[in-house]
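The material for today's practical consists of a large collection of protein records. An example says more than a description, so a record of this kind follows:
***
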Amino acid sequence: MYEPIRSGSSRRSVHTMAGTPSGVPHRSREEELEIQLAGHLAALLAVTDELRTTAPSTDLDAAAERLSEQVARLRGGHAPVRAPVPASRTPGDAAALHRRAHALAGRALVVAASRADTAAAILAAERMDAHAAALDEAGGGKRPEQETTPAQHAELSGAAH
């Protein structure tokens, strides 16, 4: 009914002191932020590639190239996997994609600012502005809600420069 108390066995107890090595690899905060930033930028790249099939433009082409470079830099030179996206989107999808891209760029900006990655922060801020402008131009699309206060945005922008 009850498990006998283990004494001197090689099994570790759940009560082992936290300071003792457990054999489990741990990453630093900086490594975790780098992984997180690469993930946000890779997701933004995927949405950008989708947008390129919906509404091709040189701005989106250049943005995709810059995003790809940043993801590769953060992943130690490993280029992101990019799948071709079929051009079967409707015009209404573009607004939803711009909203999603705006949100992803905002997340990337926050992580880039917290790890003081100027290049990624500038790119993310530029992409946020581009997607917000695209939504304004579309007129019919609801503009993304502001996720930060103006003071927070200024603080993040200041950290990026």
Observations:
- The CA atoms of residues 1 and 7 lie 18 Å apart.
- The radius of gyration is 21 Å.
- The helical segments are 29-54, 58-74, 91-114, 118-138, 150-160.
